[in-house]
Amino acid sequence: MTGLPPTSKKKLGLVIDLDTCVGCHACAVSCKEWNAGGFAAPLTDERPYGKDPSGVWFNRVHSYEVAPTPVTGCASGGVDAATSAAQPAMTLHFPRSCLHCEEPACVTVCPTGASYKRAEDGIVLVDEDKCIGCKLCSWACPYGAREYSEVEGVMKKCTLCIDRIYNENLATEERQPACVQACPTRARHFGDLGDPESEVSKLVAARGGVDLMPQLGYKPVNKYLPPRPRRAGENGAKPAAPVPEVVDTAVLPPVLRWLDRVLSR
Question: Does residue 100 lie within any of the structural domains?
Fold first, then answer.
């Protein structure tokens, strides 16, 4: 079985803001586009326009309906459950990809050493030349982050775009994963989560970023920022009906009075 390197000080990973993700799938599409010709290429697609398409995707976005719940507190501190506003129903968009765990089970179960963790930055990768397609890593990963290529017979996964983040031929602002670069709402952030002074670490501390299923002990590097509470109005009351606007046409300029008469016919 494959061993793990010593824990590195540098821990590159993603911070995903569930409050601002709109489920547009730009991360998944940009990831697919970049990695179709990058380090993990090719990413297969079988029958993409048929009834039973299949293929390899490193990013997937799931959407869930969250039932309404009471809010038992607020940021200012003194609201109890009986008097607080209700948390309205909402749609939660949940992007999913490899979490580049500090203690990745997918690595330790690999019989050939194909799955490995880099000591210099903590990124988990697959050496496809060593992979025999046994799928042990996919069974061991509780996050469903491994992808099996039926065409090539090997396992594939998110590489954190190592061919972008270390590419000195790209402008500095472009040296980030394709999914981060493409996100229109800036719901995805990239950086060194091993550095407490990095922007991503400060963001996690400020927003209460969480691990996914921490009880399993795999210590995922990627963090999720929980959605902020939504308000349904004070004490759950419906918002007041809008007050109709009354326009005094006598004070309008002649052109607007004429336009008002035409549109009012």
Answer: yes
Dist CA 121 CA 222 (whole Å): 13
Whether 259 is covered by a domain: the verdict is: no
202 within some domain: yes
Cα 130 from chain centroid (whole Å):
30
Strand partners, 149: 154
What distance in Å separates the CA atoms of residue 17 and residue 183, rounded to the nearest whole number? 11
Which two tokens mark 36?
């179709």
Distance between CA atoms of residues 95 and 14, nearest Å: 11
pLDDT tens, 171-189?
A: 998 999 999 999 999 999 9
pTM: 0.79
pLDDT tens digits, residue range 99-129? 999 999 999 999 999 999 999 999 999 999 9
CATH code of the domain containing 90: 3.30.70.20
Give me the domain span that covers residue 32. Answer: 12-70+82-235
Give per-residue pLDDT as tens, 152-164. Answer: 999 999 999 999 9
Measured at the alpha carbon of residue 60, what is the angle toward residues 200 and 197, in degrees to the nearest 5? 5
Rounded distance between C-alpha atoms, residue 118 and residue 4, angstroms: 9
261 part of a folded domain? no
Residue among 163, 160, 164 at smallest CA distance from 189: 160
Q: Which residues contact 178 (CB under 8 A, 6 or more apart)?
A: 30, 31, 33, 34, 35, 161, 164
The total number of structural domains in the chain stands at 1
Tokens of 11: 């821990």
Whole-number Å distance between alpha carbons of 218 and 220: 6
